[in-house]
Design brief:
Elements: E1 3-8, E2 20-24, E3 27-28, E4 31-32, E5 36-41, E6 44-50, H1 65-74, E7 77-88, E8 98-99, E9 103-106, H2 131-143, E10 152-155, H3 164-172, E11 177-179, H4 185-191, E12 195-205, H5 216-240
Parallel strand pairs: 1-6, 1-7, 7-12, 9-10, 10-11
Antiparallel strand pairs: 2-5, 3-4, 5-6, 7-11, 8-12
Bound molecules: hypoxanthine.
Amino acid sequence: MERIGIIGGTGIYDPELFGEKERKEVVTPYGRASPAFIGELGGRSVVFMPRHGLRHELPPHRVNYRANIYALRQLGVSRIIATNSVGSINPRLAPGDLVVPHDFIDFTRTRRATFYDTETVHVDMTSPYCGELRRALISAGRSAGGVWDRGVYAATEGPRFETPAEIRMLSLLGCDIVGMTGIPEAVLARELEMCYASVATVTNYAAGIKQEKLTATEVVEVVRHNQEKLRRLIVEAVALIPGQRGCPCASALEEARI
Ligand code: HPA
């Protein structure tokens, strides 16, 4: 059965948000994945996975991204909607806004970012996020009060927040939002020919922009405040995802091997 995966980011841990029925602990060749919950949304089978664990015990640099994506694949997931919390670099994006990124720049440093260590596989990232999933999220976003339908996501290593100079640099490079978990997830999903798109909640202005200080507490508070809006958007987006995949993600490995 083809299932839709939902990866919950900071503040989105409660499996009941997405119709939990059955818990699965999956051990993969890459190690143990975060817990997965099989459920149903509007008649479609979904798997919810809180990326950081149920009590946020895994910081961004310790999440086993390979195990998580592999486990979702093993559970029959072919399409993934991820949620992320992000800081705003582009001052037009305000706390509480939702963004569906269309591109990213990867500044992470310590992560295992590929499934292919013993053969050479170069997946195409010209369209880094699945167009079909992005369209579903953007359409669903219209009734949720609007989402930003583009944005360049800067992935930083964390777990510390960025410095103002780093944010100025990211701004000069064209980044709109910054977070610590969007990569390598998007890359690993592509490597397994899975569709992947993300909806990011802006929780704060990034370091040095319109604020003196940045706290993890405010990040969690803003996510919690926006949780119901985000949940509704995802439920609606799941209903809008076409029954059959019509995007190129399913053949991402064609002509990718050397
Ligand atoms: N930087 C990095 N990650 C984040 C931020 C931020 O400002 N806000 C929420 N996640």
